[in-house]
Amino acid sequence: MLKSRSIIFRGHSSIRSIRRPYGTSNVAKNWKLILGYTVFTTTFTGAALVVTAVGEYELVRRQRGFMNNPMNSYRRKMWLGPPGQEEFKLRERMGDWFRSLVPTQTAFLVIIAVNIGILLAWKRAVYNRELSNKMFKWFTLRNSSKPITLLTSTFSHSSALHLFINMYCLWTFLPTMDSSYGLIRTLAIFFTGCVCSSYVNVLYKLIRGSTIPSVGASGGILAVVTAMAEIFPDIRLTFIIPVVAFDASTGVIGITALSVCGIIFKKILPSIDHVAHLAGIAYGYVWHRYIHTFYVTHSKTVKSKWRQFRERKY
């Protein structure tokens, strides 16, 4: 997650016009706003766990139905078409590529597409004052934002490079997470990590009186990375530039140390929102140690209730 002080629109420099990035604490004055953030975060996290249990049940049910459906082979033949035609060869190559992806990567293609769409909307907002006002209102995290921006701000990115780095890092970790948690739980870690890290971040902004907006999904991504590092601490991670390889636990420790130093010494990478990064790491640890255990214990009850609901006769 980045502090988006660098986002400027022609004729509308709302972020740079802020003279004092830090002011007096607004916690006492904005207790209703804090209550709204708290209710949204707890409700979203609880609902995400319930939806995860239901989603896993429906996924297994759908997979069983797909395997037993004789129409699927016919649909595949219709998609691939007669042999020897270039159009259908392209379809076959596309199908082979999609089948080579793990389920989490296939699902996150939708998230990547949404992020690209919102980035293009930001670019369009440079020339449209009304659109820029709406984007600032609904897709940036500020100390006076609506509770829904705890989620929507994570789909915004300050630049194409910011989007590429976030999505590339997330994409490379997904195969490992898919083998450990599966599709639905990985999505749950990511989205709840985004919301919880944004929650801690906005509370910090209120305590410090910061008026600098933040954007990005780094909190959710670091929650996924930390959960992965808890399962596979010795798995090797690499960065593109420079090409440096290190194990997952070392990487998490290094990012944690950098985030703590960035909070204490604000001149260390000031454009990065270190609070959101640290909160995402903490959430990933809490998820693996406590929330996941709670989920495994109680998800069977939710799945049983959902199965009874589906099978009841009206």
Automatic annotation (TrEMBL):
Q: What Pfam families does the record point to?
A: Rhomboid (PF01694)
Q: Which terms are listed as keywords in the entry?
A: Hydrolase, Membrane, Transmembrane, Transmembrane helix
Q: Does the keyword Transmembrane apply?
A: yes
Q: Which InterPro entries match?
A: Peptidase_S54_rhomboid_dom, Rhomboid-like_sf, Rhomboid_protease_S54
Q: Which residues form the Peptidase S54 rhomboid domain?
A: 148-291
Question: What reaction(s) does this enzyme catalyze?
Answer: Cleaves type-1 transmembrane domains using a catalytic dyad composed of serine and histidine that are contributed by different transmembrane domains
Main location per UniProt? membrane
List the subcellular locations.
Answer: Membrane
Cellular component GO terms, alphabetically?
membrane
SUPFAM superfamilies, alphabetized: Rhomboid-like
What EC number is given for this enzyme? 3.4.21.105
Q: Which residues form a coiled coil?
A: none
The molecular function terms of the Gene Ontology recorded here are: serine-type endopeptidase activity
Q: PANTHER family under this entry?
A: PRESENILIN-ASSOCIATED RHOMBOID-LIKE PROTEIN, MITOCHONDRIAL (PTHR43731:SF14), RHOMBOID PROTEASE (PTHR43731)
Which family, according to UniProt?
Answer: Belongs to the peptidase S54 family.
Task: Name it.
Answer: rhomboid protease
Q: Which species does the entry assign this protein to?
A: Oopsacas minuta
